[in-house]
Write a structure and sequence with these properties.
Protein name: Nucleosome assembly protein 1-like 1
Number of helices: 13
Helix content: 40-55%
Shape: flat
Distance between the termini: 49 Å
Keywords: Nucleus
Number of strands: 6
Structural class: alpha+beta
Subcellular location: Nucleus
Mean pLDDT: 79
Low-confidence stretches: 340-356
InterPro entries: NAP-like_sf (IPR037231), NAP_family (IPR002164)
Strand order of the largest sheet: 1-2-3-4
GO biological process, one term: nucleosome assembly
Largest sheet: 4 strands, antiparallel
Order of helices and strands: HHHHHHHHHEEEEEEHHHH
Length: about 350
């Protein structure tokens, strides 16, 4: 669901990607440097007193907005229970525990609408012939692995050694915190029995807060993730893909002899997702990892789980690309209209020419 603060963030990102807007904004900010405080200092005491009253009203608005987001969370929790039977059936079909009926499988694709009856019959016969030649697969093989590989945000995390494990992923669920508990959500990754680890479910919990900071109430912009916790993966001996063994030669300082030392070091893997950096004093790299982790968690919760089949087929990715393309076209049109040197007959004049 696109909440007001999320739409604002999306617009901000689009603006920040436009160099002309950035330059204009910087110029404006340079001109305003020091002016707000100077202006406030110049106001009569009685006016300053009224401005303080407005600030107190603004703090109350922030608390009301926090309550709004708390109720949004409750609505999400309520509707998650309504979605779940559909998601459970999806899971049954994916893993082959349920075979959908002909009626449930009846889907009229756009490209089939204009086919003649003769062409449809021919296509059906060819499809049946192919099915006879192939072994009947169970459910929808590698469903979630395909979803992950189709989405750039997730495929960037995947390593080749992760893929055989993710072939055993059968479902991803989201569980929201109970009404009397602090705001949070948990992602559950359900696996069939496999040779890599003994866990049936791997979890990742995101703790959230929806209240203004007393020290800085005006910074409130909706719920924020305060931290996350993963889970222990009970790896089968020799199957832990988050670690790798390296051999290093060491030379003895005194004797000059060389020996080979074996060390176990961290290895890039999707499964590091279940062991996020702990909170506290983090270095820049850890903070970047944690920020990316939050983004991935939200994306899985808000996009992947509700629309998994469309990411499997690639349709959701096409929709995302169309949205990006439309946004870029809109930005380009706006740039042209706002460019004082723009002539619709010849296009925009290069900046290098206008400055000469």
């Amino acid at each position: 669901m696109d909440t007001p603060h999320r739409l604002t963030r999306q617009l901000t990102v689009q603006m920040m990607q436009n160099p002309q807007i950035l330059a204009a904004l910087q110029e404006r900010l340079d001109g305003l440097a020091g002016s707000p405080s100077g202006y406030m200092e110049s106001l009569p005491k009685v006016v300053k007193r009224r401005v303080n009253a407005l600030k107190n009203l603004q703090v109350k608005c922030a608390h009301i907005e926090a309550k709004f987001y708390e109720e949004v969370h409750e609505l999400e929790r309520k509707y998650a229970a309504l979605y779940q039977p559909l998601f459970d059936k999806r899971s049954e079909i994916i893993k082959g525990a349920y075979e959908p009926t002909d009626e449930e499988c009846n889907w009229k694709a756009d490209e089939e609408e204009e086919l003649t009856e003769e062409m449809k019959e021919k296509a059906k016969l060819e499809e049946e012939k192919k099915d006879e030649e192939k072994e009947d697969p169970r459910g929808i093989p590698e469903f979630w692995l395909t979803v992950f590989k189709n989405v750039d945000l997730l495929s960037d995390m995947l390593q080749e050694h992760d893929e055989p494990i993710l072939k055993h992923l059968q479902d991803i669920k989201v569980k929201f915190s109970d009404p009397d508990q602090p705001m949070s959500f948990t992602l559950e990754f359900h696996f069939e029995p496999n040779d890599f680890f003994t866990n049936q479910v791997l979890t990742k919990t995101y703790k959230m807060r929806s209240e203004p900071d007393e020290a800085d109430p005006f910074s409130f912009d909706g719920p924020e993730i305060m931290g996350c916790t993963g889970c222990q993966i009970d790896w089968t001996k020799g199957k832990n893909v988050t670690l790798k063994t390296i051999k290093k030669k060491q030379k003895h300082k005194g004797r000059g002899t060389v020996r080979t030392v074996t060390k176990t070091v961290p290895n890039d893997s999707f499964f590091n997702f279940f062991c996020p950096p702990e909170g506290g004093n983090l270095d820049e790299d850890s903070e970047a990892v944690l920020a990316a982790d939050f983004e991935i968690g939200h994306f899985i919760r808000e996009r992947i789980i509700p629309r998994a089949v469309l990411y499997f087929t690639g349709e959701a990715i096409e929709d995302d690309d169309d949205d990006v393309s439309q946004n870029r076209e809109g930005e380009e049109e706006a740039d042209e209209e706002n460019d004082p040197e723009y002539d619709p007959k010849v296009g925009a004049i290069p900046l290098s020419l206008t400055t000469q």
